[in-house]
Amino acid sequence: MAIRTKVNVDPSFPLSSMTDLVFLLLIFFMISSTLINTNALKLLLPKSTNQISTKPEAVVSIKHLLPSNTLLYYVNSTKKSVAFSDIERLLQQQLSETDDPVVSIYADKTAPVGIIVDVMNIAKRNKYKVLLATSPE
To answer: Mind giving me the DSSP string for 10-74?
Structure first.
């Protein structure tokens, strides 16, 4: 004679632990998204396989507007462009108290090489290290 036991399975699922997990993930992504330093300018950077993780103290962005063939210069992702003659002064003001200053140059793929070299010469005159930003291949 087989004795059968009645098993009652509760189909409900406790969602309180799931909501805690969702809130923790939300907080994590909110905090980590503020740590990402994105470049505000849309630049078409040249591609390269060499990538380094040195964080520059200053950033010079060169945007090349093809239809009008004009160049816009930005220092440290400011919203307003600066004149080329002001770049050296702005870099000197920002990097005057830095021991080993590093300047990163973000230049459009179509920007003339001569202009990029001119910005590199500004860094060389002031004994700054220079990084040329590229996008990964």
So the answer is: ------HHHHHHHHHHHHHHHHHHHH----SS---PPEES----PPPSEEEEEEEETTTTEEEEE
